[in-house]
Amino acid sequence: MADVVDVAGQAGRFAVKVFQRARYIDMDKCIACGTCAEKCPRKVPDEYNSGLAKRKAAYVKFPQAVPLKYVIDKDHCIYFEKGKCRACEKFCPTNAVNFDEQDRELSLEVGSIVLALGSEHYNPETYDIYGYAASPNVVTGMEFERILSSGGPFEGHLVRPSDHQEPRRIAWIQCVGSRDPHHCGNGYCSSVCCMYAIKEAALAKEHAGPDLDAAIFFMDMRTPGKEFEKYYNRARDEKGVRFIRSRPHKVEPLPDSGNLMVHFTTAEGRVLQEEFDLVVLSIGLQTSPETVALAGRLDIELNSDRFAHTSPFRPVQTSRPGIFVCGAFQAPKDIPVSVMEASAAAAECGELLAAVRGSRVKQVVEPTERDISAEDPRIGVFVCNCGTNIGGVVAVPEVAAYARALPHVAFVEENLFTCSQDTQDKMKEMIREHNLNRIVVAACSPRTHEALFQQTIKEAGLNKYLFEMANIRNQDSWVHQSMPEAATQKAKDLVRMAVAKVGLQQPLAEFQLGVSKSALVVGGGIAGMEAALSLATRGYPATLLEKGSALGGHGLELHAAWDGQPVAPYLNDLIGRVQNHRDIEVLLNAEVEEVQGFVGNFRTTVQAGGKTREVAHGVAIIAVGGRSLEPEEYGRGQSDRIFVNLELDRAISRQDPLVAGARCAAFIQCVGSREPQRPYCSRVCCSHSIENALRLKALNPEMDVFILYRDIRTFGSRENLYRQARAQGVVFIQFSLESKPVVAVTDGGKLQITVQDPVLQHPLVIAPDILTLASAVVSHDTDPLAKQFKVPINAEGFFLEAHMKLRPVDFATDGVFVAGLAHYPKPIEECIAQAKAAASRAATVLARDSIMAGGVVALIHKELCCGCQACLQCCPFGAISYLEQESRCEVNQALCKGCGTCAATCPSEAISLLGFSHLQLYTQIDEALSA
Amino acid sequence: MDTPFEPRILAFLCNWCSYAGADLAGVSRFQYPPNIRVIRVMCSGTVSPHHVIRAFQKGADGVLVAGCHIGDCHYIKGNYMTLKRMDFLAGLIAFSGYQPERLRLEWISSAEGVKFAEVIREFTEKIRALGPAPGWAAVPLAVGA
Ligand SMILES: Cc1cc2nc3c(=O)[nH]c(=O)nc-3n(C[C@H](O)[C@H](O)[C@H](O)COP(=O)(O)OP(=O)(O)OC[C@H]3O[C@@H](n4cnc5c(N)ncnc54)[C@H](O)[C@@H]3O)c2cc1C
Ligand code: SF4
Ligand code: SF4
Ligand code: FES
User: Residue B139: which pLDDT band, with cuts at 50, 70 and 90?
Assistant: First the structure.
């Protein structure tokens, strides 16, 4: 609800003018009961559900919105249109509606700015050959996402818009609004649509059953992300999604049935048509006109595809210093890379503002805690009416009276709104006055309000864990609206369960552990160096461990980034800065020997140049990279005319006579990638080969250049390279895994490639002077390092992050992070972004003086532990260790996240999850069933 | 006069997904039968077979254990443990001559208010059709070979 109007000043000191529109609802008062929306008479198409459903003029954008506060849509509100209505105002139980609120202008003083402006979806209305405007049964990928969603317009039932019938045949059409400079001006590839189409097709099959015909029409199937290829293979081989290589030329709405005829031409040139019940257009991402305008106001440069211009060597830096960019505004991209860049942008801000870090921080004073160990439970119960949200259904006075009679209950009160500020003050007063030592609030959900009440009782001198909520709104009055008696009975039961549980609750201690404010970075390639440098720039010393005798890694062999910028100057500068930084210690010929300790307090033994030493560090970043596969096929090794791409890079640079004199060159793609034994895409090779093809063409425009490929995966603006290569006469020939090209090396050392021509359907023979194999990027032997740091690797030896989408550089084990090729094959700019992201995440640990541990964590009662170690295996966070001498297990409370899996595993119930102990759970069970 | 049978169902919901899904059902005002009592646990992996058996011993007619979808567990793999345990437990329940249909495992995300309401409706009706639980104590213990 706020727009940036203008930014003045420069990096380190910007003055930002912001225009904030009025919400007409006071956020402090709104309790998100939804009465305003219920009473509002105006219905508006719901943008969130892509217009497939209706919302009101008083609304929340979507049910999981944060903060969950309503808003009045001025443009559709009847009062703003006609001067009358104000129904919401009349019914709002907290008087949160305020029609007098005004738009306002704010000025902010900031040191740096991050643009996370995202993208809009291409609107296919103008693309009339696909019938989007003509038929309701042609929908966009986003509309289909909403159709599938259980919170969507059809409550997750897969039906088509025209007649709400279940479709039996669905087609997806790729590249609508992408890879198409002629129709829509978007020449680039939107990068995400192939994967989301596969996902949607797979989900559709899950919804509708295996008989559903799901067909995806595509030009190239682009699944170059981590684990994506496996997903694609499963969709095709196990779920039976059909993949048809063709860009349809027409979707024709059929008059009576509402069905659609898809007209397309196969690779061999056959013109076909197929009928479908529903057609999904895989629309691309683009920068919105508003964002383009904002970029103009901010004076940052856009590239020819209208995304923020960045250099591969500074992937999140815009053209204006101090302004950074991340996500889909930088280039179309998926969630994991967006998240990675977000952390990278945070790192850039941290580097820029390192000198003033913490200068505006206010210290909070912690209230002292009352010792209740000698007291019997004295429980206070607060029962909320929530206006009429609870009281309108549940007989609150009856529940309160019931609570009064429960054991250990010393005080009960009914409130109109328990969460209001005056009730909070009252609660503190009552705790003191009645000497209460445990509190139950029967109201809404602990998920939204527990923290608020815990803060209140903390301020009254109670340990915040001496608290429990009974959810008598979201899970009672709201869902049993026509059953007041049953709802009242349920409320009593929930209160009884909460009272019994809290009565058993003991104060839980939280304690602080010191942090070694330095990092260990393993691997001295681009990722490792960038990570170390980022941390050192922010004042955190780093030890950089390199196995080899020099820094640089694969960067030393690469000629240029994808946009043609040479790597060497960047890399030399980086190596220089790393070597000269006083806070970076570089250890060459060095390897990890043993790792001890945990987040904040690692002690790692390293071997460096023949000497052993110990490094104390708070965090570790694994950036050990990968390597190029040595191919064992296509005649490799039988001729010096057969290169891999990195070799060709160098051969071109030094004008190797074999290359300079070549009249015909060929490339074979996916060598070792996307094969059954290595079912992943190496992500970089398509662009790499095309870049080299273009360099060969620049060397000798007369050279015939052939690229033999399975799918060309030039995602994002790399697609422009692909187009350029075709324009310059590079010949692309598609082959499949089943009919791979055959390379023969004749006695005279000449090369001959035979490949099936997909158009003419007969074998084609090429006799190139040089052949380049786009060999896979593979992992090193990562197993030992993975074991040392107790972090996982995937089947192909790449390190496995904590969450594929949301935590792309973290491990489940706190304090250890990953970046670069060690995580998955990726180009330089992504390595740099990921390195900065890892540094950023690491800095969240190093910035702290201490780490909080304790609270809801597991505790092993040693006298009950039999040392069976069942818990040790099941802990997802490696928090449990076996003490050899005592033959018992122990939980490291600094690592424990409180899932309780160990407690449920222990055969002797020797483990308690504090706050959810076995005794408490059994008591709750008993109480639930005692009425 | 006999009161009609009202099933008593206990539900263990993980804090991060299923409990949030139940909250969302409320925010969306999806109505469902008032027969369940919810125990919030941090992760579905907190629920041990003993907890479920205790519920049956204390007279539950049905027990629901719900967590995040596989792959979405807040604690990464807690729900894998749940899956294994509940599978094992269902086998044990069947082996001891009890009705395994009275135990239900569901994956319900924080966005699936609809699903939560549907599961409760369906499960309540199913238990209603099964009738009152025979009582765990009444179940003869299996005699091993
Ligand atoms: C149909 C479809 C399906 C997809 N499926 C997947 C998938 O399955 N998996 C996957 O990984 N990715 C998927 N993606 C891609 C994914 O959506 C993006 O990678 C991701 O959302 C990008 O995040 P972002 O923050 O950069 O942009 P956005 O999500 O677009 O967020 C940008 C935010 O900035 C706000 N904003 C814009 N301008 C301004 C301004 N001037 N001032 C203030 N705020 C502003 C916008 O309102 C918006 O809230 C899909 C995309 C589409 C279109
Ligand atoms: S090739 Fe690119 S633009 Fe086309 S659908 Fe796939 S990801 Fe989208
Ligand atoms: S509660 Fe979870 S995180 Fe903590 S020790 Fe047990 S299994 Fe590990
Ligand atoms: S947190 Fe929901 S199942 Fe683990």
Answer: low
Identify any residues that bridge with A241 across adjacent strands, giving them in sequence order. none
Q: Which residues line ligand 4 (CB under 6 A)?
A: B 14, 16-17, 43-45, 67-68, 73-75, 78-79
Q: Where are the domains of chain B?
A: 9-138
Minimum CA distance residue for ligand 2 atom 2: A189
Largest CA distance in chain B: 53
Q: Which of A238, A251, A243, A237 is nearest to A267 (CA)?
A: A243
User: What was the pLDDT predicted at B144?
Assistant: 33
Closest approach of B115 to chain A, Cα-based (Å): 7
Spell A745-775 as b/e; 16+ CB within 10 A means b: beeeeebebebbebeeeeebebebbbbbbbb
* Interface residue of B31, B35, B39 to substitute, partner A, most A CBs within 10 Å: B39
* Residue of A474, A924, A930 lying closest to B23 (CB–CB): A474
Chain B residues with beta carbon closer than 8 angstroms to that of A487:
34
pLDDT in tens, A106-137: 999 999 999 999 999 999 998 889 999 999 99
Judged against a pLDDT cut of 90, whether residue A841 lies above it is answered with yes
Nearest to A780, CA basis, from A525, A568, A417, A558: A525
Please give the pLDDT value at position B141: 44
pLDDT digits (tens, 9 = 90+) for A746-775: 988 899 999 998 888 899 999 999 999 999
* Partners of residue B76 in chain A, C-beta under 8 Å: 802-803, 812, 876-877
Question: Which chain A residues have a beta carbon less than 8 Å from that of B136?
Answer: none
> What's the whole-model pTM score?
0.86
What angle (nearest 5°) sits at the alpha carbon of residue A350, between those of residues A348 and A351? 65
Helix, strand, or coil here: A594? strand
pLDDT tens per residue across span A688-747: 999 999 999 999 999 999 999 999 999 999 999 999 999 999 999 999 999 999 999 998
Which residues sit opposite A13 in a β-bridge?
A: A10
Mean pLDDT for chain A?
Answer: 95
A-interface mutation test, from B3, B18, B23, most A Cβ less than 10 A away: B23
pLDDT attached to residue B39: 98
Side chain identity at A365, as an amino acid letter? Answer: V
Interchain contact A368–B (C-beta under 8 A): no
Ligand 1 contacts CB of residue A199 (under 6 A): yes
Least confident piece of the model among A360-374, A597-611, A772-786: A360-374
CATH number of B9-138: 3.40.50
What's phi and psi for A761, nearest 5 deg?
Answer: 60, 35
Distance CA A166, CA A260 (A): 15
Q: Which amino acid belongs to residue A482?
A: S
Chain B residue numbers touching A802 (CB-CB < 8 A): 76
What type of residue is A696?
Answer: L
Atom number in ligand 3 closest to CA A905: 7
Which residues, including other chains, have CB under 8 Å from residue A306's CB and lie 6 or more apart?
Answer: A286, A287, A292
